[in-house]
Amino acid sequence: MALTWFQRLQVAFRGWARRREDESKKRQQEFLQRNTGWAPSKPAPTAPRSVSSRPHVDLDGLQAAFLDSSGAIAYYLDLESGEVVEHRGNEPELTDARYRRVPARTPQSDAEDRAAFAGTLQDAALRQSLLEARDAAAFRRAISGDRAAERAWYNFKNDRATTAIASWLRTLDAP
Has this prediction a pTM greater than 0.85? Predict the structure, then answer.
């Protein structure tokens, strides 16, 4: 499982708060349009913004999408709204230029992260048992005995995901 129950709750609450904020801004805009007849009806043109400069890129959704290892859902970033769109196998492919596929983790990147995390541990016996773990399931079994190390592993994994997502967003801004 990619995210803990608590992390999923955090992502849900942030999404709800963001939607509430967007609805509030929309209501304010509608109010201004209704009550400012003297203002120009057409807004001033704005220059297009890059993806990372958008204030509402759904970073939590991107992290959840990046860490989802189920393979059942493909995730796309909507470049216009900054939202993450889920795409299931029975739906038509999103080929519009406004959508970019969120990169997925590979077994190799997972193995590299596990090895890098094991290298950060002070406990030599735990570090050795984690390095000897052949796959993710064996790694989880080995780390499950030490709650502090397990918590540190999930923090480490989230930090690596955040770094990878930031790097990917920078590539979207590149000309």
Answer: no
